[in-house]
Design goal:
Blueprint (H helix, E strand, L loop, with lengths): L15 H12 L28 H9 L3 H12 L5 H24 L4 H10 L3 H9 L4 H6 L5 H21 L5 H18 L23
Helix pairs in contact: 1-4, 2-4, 4-9, 5-6, 5-8, 8-9
Amino acid sequence: MKNFPKKLGGGRLMTVTVLLGIALLAVLAVPFVGSAAQTANGRPSGDRSNQAPLTVEECRSRVDLNDPRRDTFLDELVADAVISADQAAEIDARLDARHFEACVARILWERGNAIEATAAATGTEKREVVGALIAGQSLAEFAAEYGVDEATLVDAIMAAPEAMAAELVNSGQLGQDEANAIIAKIEERVSVGIHLTDVSPRRFGAGQLDLGPAEF
């Protein structure tokens, strides 16, 4: 999004906080759309926006792509004097930051992380953890049976993404503040996920713990 018309209204201005929520609902539900040459199905040639990212650089490139739907949405709000151009730019920047964090989170979080970590923490086999999930237990309940409390379980599950984040920081691919923010959000999702009892073992680490843009 480059420029916005600077038409402002009187009593119709809304706060940036409220409008950010509106923008998130409207924008995060759809994938990125680039301004590159479009294919027959309307997506950019070589587009990988619906696939798991491979590198942090790819995440930055995705964020740099223009999203015409977001631009149109914010342009209309400015043109209708609902928000100012500065507010639109702030919303745009915050959405970019959120998309970037969600993209990198998908690099740090791999499917099966939670099951493998739970098995290791409890000294059991992955098939036993899967069996417990199938039987309707949560990971927290399963771990408790082996004397592993919730905090220890979360730490065990977070070990892999934290180690990978540290590598990315040490290699200069990710800033420490960026890594801290992303790890905090992953841990928040994990803390909820270990209590789920209606999760498919095949999807655990993806589905309910999906760290893509729509759920991050």
